[in-house]
Each structure stands twice: as structure tokens, then as C-alpha cells.
Amino acid sequence: RKQATEYSTSSSDDEFESKPSLTHKAKRNLRRRRKLEKETKQLIKQEELKRLHKAQAIQRQLEELEERQRALEIFGVKLERELRGESDSGTKDETQMLHEWFELVLEKNKLMRYESELLIVAQELELEDHQSRLEQKLREKMAIDGKSK
């Protein structure tokens, strides 16, 4: 009897000691998981801020581009009037005005291509933002424990 009691006591001690170590491991795992989640959220925020800054820069460039296009348009209208003879500018010859007009058209085409590129980059940023949100939703759904799924 004495031996059986000692044996059962020692086995219950082992069980008692193993339980705290399991909870310690669980707590450690929980801390690690929370730390990883926190770091992931910080990275996501940083990426969002980068995309926001890029989007703002693109918006500024588009506004500047629009101003330059307006100025070119105004200059082009003036130049066309001079070419038609509607304006009294006897200082420039026709070949010089045609040369300026062609340069103006080339510049305007260049600006339009640049605008298209900026719009494509802006669309890419929107898609990246959408992807990030979807990934976040997926992470949230994956974090739900099995019973509530």
C-alpha cells in the first residue's frame, strides 16, 4: 500500500508539474503569435502609407501635367491663329511657325503618354491596396478557431 500510494503521488506530481509547463508553452506561443500579428499589422500599415504617398505623388504629377497641357493648348491655339493669318504677327515666317507647331504637337503627345503611364501606375496601386485588404480579411478569417468556423 505504501508503495502504491507513493507511486500514485509521484505520478500525480508529474502530471501537476507537466500542466504548468504546458500552460507556460501555450502562453509563450500565444505571446509569439500576438507579437507576429502586431508586426504584421505594422508592416501592413507601412505598406499602406507607402502606397498612399505614391498615390499622392502621382496625383500631384497629374495636376502638374494638366497645367502643362493647358498651357500648351493655349499656345497651340495662338500659333494656329498665326498660321491661318487671323493674327497679326508679321515677325515670324511660316516655316518657323510650322516648326513650332510640330514641336508643340510632339510635346503634347509626350505628355499624353506620360499621363497614360501615371494612370496605369495609379491603377496598380489601387489593385495592390485591394489585394492587401483581401489578404487582411483572409488572415482574420484564418485566425478564427475551428469551432466557430
TrEMBL record:
Region (Disordered): 1-39
Biased composition (Polar residues): 1-11
UniProt domain BMERB: residue ranges: 45-149
InterPro entries: bMERB_dom, F-actin_Monoox_Mical
Basic residues bias spans: 22-35
Transmembrane segments annotated in the record for this chain: none
Lineage: superkingdom: Eukaryota
Protein name (record): MICLK protein
Species this protein is from: Oceanites oceanicus (Wilson's storm petrel)
GN (gene name): Micalcl
